[in-house]
Amino acid sequence: xxxSGAEAATSYAYKASLIGxxxxxxxxxxxxxxxxxxxxxxxxxxxxSAIRLSFRPVxxxxxxxxxDVSHSGGGRIAILSTSWQTAALMAPQDNGFRDFLIELHxxxxxxxxxxxxxxxxxxxxxxxxxxxxxxxxxxxxxxLIRALMIGEFAGVLFILGFAALFAWQVGxxxxxxxxxxxxxxxxxxxxxx
Length: 193
What we know:
Elements: E1 2-3, E2 8-14, E3 23-27, E4 32-36, E5 39-43, E6 48-55, E7 65-71, E8 76-80, E9 82-86, E10 89-92, H1 94-110, E11 116-119, H2 123-149, H3 153-176, E12 180-181
Parallel strand pairs: 6-11
Antiparallel strand pairs: 1-2, 2-3, 3-4, 4-5, 6-7, 7-8, 9-10, 11-12
Helix pairs in contact: 2-3
Organism: Bradyrhizobium huanghuaihaiense
Transmembrane segments: 126-147, 153-174
Protein name: Bll5862 protein
């Protein structure tokens, strides 16, 4: 965070890839200032039409969050909670990301924003994920019953172990990304690091 001028200016930056410059954002008195890949802009807080928060793990970083900010005149920017450090290291920036988003919501509320605030996946996508998981659960239960019937106890242990690992990995994603709306004063804690 940086302090400048009459009001504190909050800034945040991350590298979306190893190649290219960092994506930089700053909350100024006028609005959200952004610099991404040679482009820049300033969106007044009351011109921001929507924010969607989500939990988006990737192979290199299992604890990654994302905020999609949309402008009323078109355009969308993504703000991620991780930054590329090396070819094999993606570093979390939990505190900076959380502080930046909380301050963005506070400034938008102060400006009288009427932005649509949503969290998680879209409703159709979430329903498709749940349907897929239901089909997978039925298939796994069928395999488990078959393994028990033929006495293949090593197979039973494998299926139970795989199911536990899968539930642990995917369960957090599904739980955190449940579709919901929220207000400026109740930003969902599950979608902030």
